[in-house]
Amino acid sequence: MIPRSLQAVLPFKSKPKVREGRKKTGTEERVKAAVVVDGKERQIRSLLTQVQTLKKEKMTKRREKAAEKRVEREKAMAREAARSESRQREERRDYFKQEDISERKRQIAAQGGGKKRARSGREDND
Question: Does the predicted model carry a pTM greater than 0.70?
Answer without folding.
Answer: no
